[in-house]
Design goal:
Layout (H helix, E strand, L loop, with lengths): L3 E6 L2 E6 L10 H12 L8 E6 L4 E3 L4 H4 L4 H19 L5 E5 L2 E3 L1 H8 L2 E5 L3 E3 L13 H8 L2 H9 L4 E2 H6 L5 E3 L4 H13 L3 H14 L4 H15 L3 H12 L13
Helix pairs in contact: 1-3, 3-4, 4-5, 5-6, 9-10
This protein binds acetoacetyl-coenzyme A.
Acetoacetyl-coenzyme A binds next to helix 2, strand 6 and helix 4.
Length: 261
């Protein structure tokens, strides 16, 4: 039985971490199932992914503390690599990934949400990196992505003092894009995913690469990367159809499948 489910409807895949009895905490089996769920997504059919947690209380309450409690230094490092590799896989997944944060996003949960492209939060969501209270550092990218997403000073304050914040504060510091009443969160995530799914797929993928990869480059190299990805869109069906229809005032006819020509 898998700890992660994946359902596809209207070109949107909803990936759900399903271990509600432990608030969806991430042990090695859950992490493996999460990777398998993403690997199983048909990238020709699907245009956007929504990632969420099962139950009404938690997105992911962190890495599994029971699994970590007896680890040696070497095992701890290996566990960090396991999580980091999977979160990097999600971060660089060709399709956009929206985190629908439906409750606790603590430790590895906040780190997982930060590996996604966009974070939408329920009003009851709680964010934080409580690791120093457990005698460890954040281990699945928290020290790196939080500092990049908010600011180094705010990340240090939250991490050093193990401070949890509510959804409104997460919105204020730019950790999430929007906050919704809990019972409207999935509808909002699916609406945004549906809108993304309607856009030209090669262009959307290239935008994800341009933004993600460009952020780590000096601006001269970043704009060169953009030029290459911009050029890559030309001569595609989507570009010809999209621009042709604009000029003829027609509605674009999408190709039934993702294709690069
Ligand atoms: N690991 C393992 N089990 C967890 C868990 C975790 N991170 N978080 C919650 N659970 C389990 C609890 O042990 C409990 O199980 P039992 O019913 O078998 O006792 C069940 O989920 C429900 O949790 P609570 O009874 O504690 O629920 P609550 O509503 O009273 O509290 C909570 C919720 C505040 C989130 C609390 O569960 C909590 O503090 N959890 C731990 C949060 C945390 O410290 N996360 C960081 C982990 S370290 C990490 O993630 C390292 C990294 O960067 C890789």
């Amino acid at each position: 039985m898998s700890f992660v489910t994946c359902e596809v409807q209207d070109r949107v895949a909803v990936v759900t971490i399903n271990r509600p009895e432990a608030l969806n905490a991430l042990n090695p089996d859950v992490l493996a199932d999460l990777k398998a769920a993403f690997e199983g997504i048909d990238q020709d059919e699907v245009r956007c992914v929504v990632l969420t947690g099962a139950g009404e209380k938690s997105f992911v309450a962190g890495a599994d503390i029971g699994s970590m409690s007896t680890m040696t230094k070497a095992e701890g490092q290996e566990f960090g690599k396991l999580g980091n590799d999977i979160f990097l896989f999600i971060e660089t997944f060709p399709l956009p990934v929206i985190a629908a944060v439906n409750g606790f996003a603590l430790g590895g949960g906040n780190e997982l949400a930060m590996s996604c492209d966009i974070r939408l939060a329920a009003e009851n969501a709680v964010f934080g990196q409580p690791e120093v209270g457990l005698g460890i550092t954040p281990g699945f990218g928290g020290t790196q992505r939080l500092a990049r997403l908010v600011s180094p000073g705010m990340a240090k304050q939250l991490v050093y003092a193990a401070t949890n914040i509510d959804a409104a504060e997460a919105l204020r510091i730019g950790l999430v894009n929007a906050v919704h009443p809990a019972d409207e969160l999935m509808a909002a995530a699916l609406k945004l995913a549906g809108r993304i799914a309607k856009q030209a797929p090669i262009a959307v993928r290239n935008c994800k690469r341009a933004i993600n990869e460009g952020l780590d480059l000096p601006i001269e190299q970043a704009v060169e990367l953009e030029e290459r990805l911009f050029g890559d869109c030309f001569e595609t069906h989507d570009q010809q159809e999209g621009m042709g229809c604009f000029l003829s005032k027609d509605k674009p006819k999408p190709k039934p499948q993702f294709t690069n020509n």
